[in-house]
Each structure stands twice: as C-alpha cells, then as structure tokens.
Amino acid sequence: MVITWYGQSCFKIQSGEISLFTDPFSKDIGLTPPRGQTDIITVSHDHFDHNNIESLNGQPLIINGPGEYESKGIEINGILAFHDDKEGKERGINTIYVIEMEGIKICHLGDLGQSKLTAEQIEKIDGIDILMIPVGGTYTIDGEGAVEIINQIEPRLVIPMHYKIPGLTLKFDPVDDFLKEMGVAKKETIDKLTLKKKDLPEEETQVIVMKI
Questions:
Q1: What is the number of alpha carbons within 13 Å of residue 201 lying toward its C-beta?
Q2: What is d(CA 108, CA 111) in angstroms, rounded to the nearest whole number?
C-alpha cells in the first residue's frame, strides 16, 4: 500500500493497480488539486475543499455518505458524524470513512467537529490501523481535540491532516500545535508512506507527518 497526501484532507491510497482518493479539493484553496485516474472517491461532506470530484479521471465509484460499500475488493463503511460540536446545527453533517484494503483498516475522519465520538461511532470504528485526523481547528477539531479522539480510537498510526501549510489560503493552526499536544518531537516529513500490514507498529501509537 502506498499513501500520498495532496494537502487538506485529500489522500491517494494505492493498492497495486487500484487507487482511492479521499476529499479532492478545489484550486480555490490555493493548492493544486489532485489529478489522474482513480477507481474510488470518498467525499466526507459537500464543501468546495472536499468535493472536487471533477479533478479526477476514470469512471470511479463516488461515495458521499453513510453506508456500506464494496468495489474491487476494497470495503468501505461510511459513518454519520457532525462537522461541529452541536450535532450539525452550525456546519452540517460529515461522513467518517473506514476503508479496508490489504488487511489494513484506515479511518478518514473528514471534517470532524465533534469533541468526542459517540459509543455507536466508536463501535463502528473499532480496530483501526491508520487514522487520518484533522488537527488545524477553525472548522474542525484542533490539536487538543484530536488527541482526545485519538485516545478514543487507539490507532496504530496517525496521519494529521487539515492544517496550515504553505500556499493554503484557509486559516488553520500548524501541525506543530498538534505534535506538542501529542507530546512528540517535531517530525521529519515524508513524501509517501509505503507499508504492509506487518510494518504497522505493535505497541505505542506512532505519528507520521506527510508533505505534498
């Protein structure tokens, strides 16, 4: 499996010839939208920095809400969540996706705004290997809130997303704020994450910081 980050909440997850993109964004946020062929696109919510499906080619399965899906051997479960801490009254709903491929369970939280997950959500998110979590605040949980959610999920790897990076026109906190809350030193960023199930850490949760 190879994971590439494009900025914001957009990742490409590649397994052999099969690719999945999460939350492709518009150029209006100041970054270059993802391009290329894909088989599956997940959209956490219908905002311009998460739903630019037109930037990608092919005839992908487009998943934009809760439910159970399967395509090309990849299983995806969309879980209802909220974009704010007031049950969606401020920013609406958000879909959390659990993606299973190569025996690895990935959880993409989208623009989660809840300060805590519900018992029902935790039950559906059980056994996560890789957690993609927003940490930049403003429209989502911030670094402190992210640590609370991580403690609820207990993943093996954490990849922060949706934070301040060069070129981005939206106002977010930098990833360093999250790393401080996690109690980890500033991390060297990586271009791509290549791993197999056997490569996942067995004990303490590890944080991977990616660059675009």
A1: 12
A2: 9
Whole-prediction pTM: 0.95
For residue 140, give Cα distances in angstroms to 19, 49, 70. 27, 13, 28
Q: pLDDT (tens digit, 9 = 90+) per residue, 35-73?
A: 999 999 999 988 777 889 999 999 999 999 999 999 999
Q: Which residues pair with 94 in a beta bridge?
A: 81
Q: Strand 2-7 to strand 10-15: parallel, antiparallel, or no bridges (unpaired)?
A: antiparallel
Cα distance between residue 89 and residue 115, in whole Å? 15
Tokens (6 digits) for 181: 């809350």
Whole-angstrom distance, CA of residue 150 vs CA of residue 146: 6
Q: What is the pLDDT of residues 104-119, one digit of tens each?
A: 999 999 999 999 999 9
The Cα–Cα gap between 58 and 159 comes to 27
The pLDDT, as a whole number, for residue 89 is 66
